[in-house]
Amino acid sequence: MPPEQIDNHDEISFAEFLTRYELPKSVYGYLVGSIHDACFVCPADAVAASEAIRVLQMIFLRSGGLFAKGGIGRVAETYAAAVEENGGRYVSNARVQKILVENGAVAGVATDRDTFRAPIVVSNVGIQPTVLKLVGEEHFADDYLAYVKDLVPSCGLPGVRYFLDQKVIRQPFGTIFSTDGYWTSEKFDRAAAGEIPEDIAVLYEVPSNYDENAAPDGKQIVLASVWGPADGQATDQQMKPWWEKCDEIMFQVFPDLPEHIEHREPYSVRDVSLLTRDRVLPNQGGECIGLGQVVGQGGQKKPSVTAPLRGLFFVGCDAGGYGVGTQQATESGMKVADVVEKHRAAGSL
């Protein structure tokens, strides 16, 4: 399907798109439960078909993804190093507390370490936390605030890290799924209310099977995750059923795993929120990707990277890019850089 035809599928879900084809149930379960659900962390009956078609083309026609030696964090570290190589300054461990606004335009950021003044601020913490917390509602029109508050996050991705005393899993990455294990919006809402189904997909990755330096000699760290609520204030008690389901399915598929666990470390959507995204609305903050790539805010209907406040831009998985997770954020970074430069060169700031 050429790009111009893909753009015509913003208004229908991927699930609706697939009903045009007489797919065997097993093929549908594979496309949705194994591929789609792992990529979008939003149900197929919500994700815009245009987003799903683009990503599936990338996977099947362009050989999928990559793993960065030293961990996927090396991507961000490389960009940070490039800032300094090009004469900029990269400051770590300085949490932004406020985006400064003066005379109807941004004027810099205040952090817990210092204040940095600038006529341009590019925020990667998400549109909702940026507008509703860091800038403040008083600087935006009511209709824009309503739009921002109505944006839908992706689901969360809680999980468990298993530290093993020997190598147990030979695959570097995989999705454990069944024909009926894919998510629908209704099925996820029931699970979030306590009715977790018997079969759900589990994503796992073994970094040392890509990079031999990712674990001590002869040992493994296995990262496993399942879908879960995105509430950035979720308690351990709320997360426990999801962690237990992750264990259940991992141990079923890899029966040697339990006896070789030296240490088990569950992680919560609350941990995600503390690291990356402030909770400013109910059921938000701990989302896996950022805004869901869903009908109404996917494809050509993605939020604009340019805020209605002079000098403020959005970057990351909320706006500007296509793809899966880090890939989407990286593409957004490159595209938003071009937008910011054009505005600066045109004297718009």
Short description:
The protein has helices at 3-6, 14-18, 25-40, 49-61, 73-85, 127-135, 142-150, 185-192, 236-253, 269-276, 326-345; strands at 96-102, 105-111, 115-117, 121-123, 159-164, 173-176, 202-205, 220-225, 261-267, 312-314.
Shape: globular
Structural class: alpha+beta
Give the averaged pLDDT, no decimals: 94
Strand order within the widest beta sheet = 6-7-8-5-9
What is the end-to-end distance? 39 Å
Q: Major β-sheet, in short?
A: 5 strands, antiparallel
Helical amount among residues, as a percent range? Answer: 25-40%
- Low-pLDDT parts are none
Q: How many alpha or pi helices?
A: 11
Instruction: Give the SSE string.
Output: HHHHHEEEEHHEEHEEHEHEH
- How many DSSP-defined strands? 10
Radius of gyration, in Å, reads 21 Å
Strand content: 5-15%
Describe the structure.
This protein starts with a helix and ends with a helix. The strands form 3 sheets. A 5-stranded antiparallel beta sheet has the order 6-7-8-5-9. A 3-stranded antiparallel beta sheet has the order 1-2-3, with helices on one face. The mean pLDDT is 94. It is built from 11 helices and 10 strands. A hairpin with a 2-residue loop joins strand 1 (96-102) and strand 2. With 349 residues, the protein is an alpha+beta fold.
Strand-helix topology:
Elements (H helix, E strand, L loop, with lengths): L2 H4 L7 H5 L6 H16 L8 H13 L11 H13 L10 E7 L2 E7 L3 E3 L3 E3 L3 H9 L6 H9 L8 E6 L8 E4 L8 H8 L9 E4 L14 E6 L10 H18 L7 E7 L1 H8 L35 E3 L11 H20 L4
Parallel strand pairs: 4-10
Antiparallel strand pairs: 1-2, 2-3, 5-8, 5-9, 6-7, 7-8
